[in-house]
């Protein structure tokens, strides 16, 4: 049964990507634009957050 959850979200700029990380054998890493990611999730609130995420990321 789904449980309502409150989370804090922040944007980070990755410095490097590692091939070895916890869960690497169980997870696949893919990259999406915020709009693509929003279309792939089922939760409306998460989709909205993803669509608005571009505004959270400032230029380096």
Number of strands: 0
Count of helix runs: 2
> Could you describe the largest sheet, including whether it forms a barrel?
none
* Helix/strand order, N-terminal first: HH
Instruction: Enumerate the spans where pLDDT stays under 50 for 5 or more consecutive residues.
Output: none
Q: Radius of gyration, Cα only, in angstroms?
A: 14 Å
Helix fraction by DSSP (H/I, runs of at least 4): 25-40%
Spatial gap, N to C terminus: 41 Å
Q: Which overall shape is indicated by the principal axes computed on the Cα atoms? A: globular
Percentage beta strand:
under 5%
Describe this structure in words.
It is globular and about 30 Å long. The protein has helices at residues 34-40, 44-52. With 60 residues, the protein is mostly helical.
Brief summary of the model shown:
It is built from 2 helices and no strands. The chain has 60 residues and is an all-alpha fold.
Set down the secondary structure blueprint:
Layout: H1 34-40, H2 44-52
Keywords:
60 residues; mainly alpha; 27% helix; 0% strand; globular
């Amino acid at each position: 049964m789904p449980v309502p959850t409150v989370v804090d979200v922040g944007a980070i700029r990755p410095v490097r990507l590692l091939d070895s990380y916890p869960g690497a054998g169980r997870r696949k890493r893919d990259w999406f634009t915020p709009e693509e990611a929003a279309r792939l999730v089922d939760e409306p609130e998460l989709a909205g957050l993803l669509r608005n995420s571009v505004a959270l990321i400032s230029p380096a």
